Amino acid sequence: MPVEFLSDEQAARYGRFHTDPTPEQLTRYFYLSEQDHALIAGRRREHNKLGFALQLCTLRFLGTFLSDPTLVPASAVQTLATQLHLDSTVFPDYRRRVSTWYEHQTVILTHTHHRPFDDFQAFRLIRWLYAQLAVSTVRPSVLFDLTTAHLVSQQVVLPGVTVLARLVARVRERVSQQTFEGLSRRLTREQRANLEALLWLPEGQRLTLLEVLRTSPTRVTSPALHAAIGRVEQIRAVGIGEVNVNDLPESRQALLARHAQTAWAQTLQRMGEERRLATLLIFVQHLERTATDDVLDLFDALMTTLALKGEAKRRQERWRTLKDLDQAALVLGDAVRVLLDTDIPERDIRRAVFGQVGETRLREAVSTVRELASEDDDPAPQALSGSYTTVRRFLPALLSVIELAGTPCAKPLLDAWRFLRRMEAGGRGKPRWSEAPRAFVPRSWERRVFPLRGEVNHQAYTLCVLERLQQAIKRREVFAPSGERYADPRSELLQGPDWEAARDDLSRALGRSLDPGVELDLLRTELAAAYREVEENLTHNTALNLEVREGHTRVNLTPLEAQQEPLSLLHLREQVSRRLPPVDLAALLLEVHTFTGFAGTFTHLTDGKAQVRDLPLSVCAVLLAQACNIGLKAVARAEHPALTLSRLSWVQQNYVRAETMTGANARLVDAQADLPLAQSWGGGEVASADGLRFVVPVRTVSAGWNSKYFGAQRGVTYYNFTSDQFTGFHGIVVPGTLRDSLFILAGLLEQQTQLDPREIMADTHGYSDVVFGLFTLLGYRFSPRLADLADQRFWRLEKDADYGALNDLSRHAVNQRRIAEHWEDMLRLAGSLKLGKVKATAVMRTLQRGGSLSGLGRAVAELGRIEKTLYLLAYVQDEAYRRRILVQLNRGEGRHAVARAVFHGRKGELRQRYREGMEDQLGALGLVVNAIVLWNTRYIGVALGDLRQSGTAVNDEDVARLSPLLHEHVNMLGRYDFTLPDEIASGQLRPLRDPDSFEAFLAQLP
Question: Which pTM was predicted?
């Protein structure tokens, strides 16, 4: 093709019938109106009437005329022939006179008001393309399709494919050049020089300044944090932080930043001057934001490390002194026993105690208890008490470089932060410690921070500020305006005129009334009906028992019994597994590409082009290397140009990244959804979320501690989402094991497949009242598996309602006034999430800890308590509902088992140092697991067809309980052979395995 961004398939279907029109399309585009019949009646011969009608409908359907009007599907010919009461066999006669075709086309254009693609239409299209590229960065192939659809909608006859493709490419190139020139003109001479200096190698150095600045920290130490803060200062010293680039779409900025992050300095030097300066400008501004995030990541990790080490030391010291504490307690026990002896007169108590215990021993015991016993519920003050020396190494730099802001509730803490900054700055305006803000200090710290009246322990005060600051940053009560992940989530919410304009449409889209009274009345009716149903069925619900413990009614639910598997299911599962053909993982990926084309979604980082010779082969090799955790050398082949180590490294750097893997994964998920067998397992409306843990043995700030999952090392959690069709449609990399409820909503709102899950299952750690509230606001259903059901609170809306035996269980009342007061803000929040204005993870961090955003968090939690109670009542009432939750969670665990088998290299440990590398590698793992699931589903369907054809009875109930999470027949070890037999490459299926030969094979095994 002259314009290489178009694939052969895309060019082949342009302006042609690449498939037969569907019945719906025939009805819409090939129906002749009365005016059409009148116009066609003016043709004299039957073949001209039919040919004229076909050209007319072809123009409406394709937006253009065919070079040969007779190359139309037979179904279209027959549809029009029937309407015209003609014999379709006369149509070939239309080929005789070419001049008649063009005469008909002129008449048709006048009749349909279509306009030819002349210079004026080209000018209008160029303006439209400029407008599209001003607000988005769609790939050229996607832009080509959008342009085609636009011309069709405007009734402009499509030009030739080469003409349109060249026009799109030319406009994209002009827009890019204008963007580069516009950005570079905003730079002063000094700023230009500073940016250019990033690419030159200083004398005596091994790395350019660009390489130094874009290298993120990996150690969690005080010197590393100090160095990370110094890195922020170096980036700001370039002096381009104040250059305004807000008019450039964020997607375009992300594209330029990604390219500069991965490209060599020499590659950037070879660019044109305007493009080089624009790229560096965007990248350095992006780098300042991410470097600020790195500082706060490192600060959080270091404070956590100090707390863990201090807590371990505290416990060790506690054990060491426990014997002394026990001895003192025994002495005090003897004294109290005398004190409680009623036979001893009150006036003789003191003499009796001293006589039996001894005054000296008693005073020593009291002193020991005071010294060793702790009144603190929070161990943090004592755990951090020895960390001041470590903190002082980075504190001055942290105070002077990192700018912080916060919500109103964080004002006392920020006042203390600014006080420390003034103390550190010194000079004539240096305040006194007696002026230190006190309102933020919690009770657990007071005794250490203020040991005596009017006295401040400055070391304890500083540690208290940093410990509270760490928690506030996690909750986003405090944020960094110059950061990216730690920025203020409130700033992205719909506000002012934007909210006023979108309020009515969003409330309708959410299915919510703007009147909180209407919504509360509906919830009140629904909740009362649910309570009554459970109360009426108490005598019949043998699994549910109400027990009175500690004076209150609690729920006791009998665990589900294991569901029996009928012999027919066991036999079917065995017969299917015997028939699945053995396959190497490399060949499996290539075969999946042949019928999905998923590797074609991988485009180059800078130009969006995918037309590289044998690119799918290279992409599949890179994906396999990352998913199996074996490195590129294991799949490289020097004798094959597409598999050389340098080619694979180049493809990994420029093609395999988060956004391209998202597109490829969506294609696999969509292909699975189209298979009839997958539809028998579920319709895509249900999903589950769970975390897969990986130890990270290398130094990184993107991993966290958890002895349960990672032992003495650190690790990450790959929080992924599994549909009821066994496909994974989204994944999030979480440092350590943060609370899953922070991320569960993001999986639904940020996924980019055709699936639309409306209900999601999770384990207990994915639960919170806020999650329930946001789920119901957005129209989703949250169905967690709760391990602490007996401790759950059941809520009510009507204080005086009579629920019979459930009255005491439902003794807690929801604060309706709080919901009503914040109802519009809740809708505004939900609308902002729905439109993608704000990230779900940032919102969850802000709301989880009850109440930033002016009490909005507490209001969402109140609504969530109603929804949680409705869920609990359904959960204890319906055994089928409980089992459905269990089945879906088991599907997610089954996917994890397959992922573990695939990720076998390097002891299953993740060895990426940076978050982006972790996301890319685990994204590749999820993609490969989806390919295995899709391949298995396809061949299981063939095996079921073979069984039915052989006369074997196959029950639909058994088919619904089959699983594509099989991997015993997939070879993931040895030498990876990226070749396919010609017949498989052409789209044919592999022959099924003979089950009898499989039995013979098993019999030969030792």
Answer: 0.72
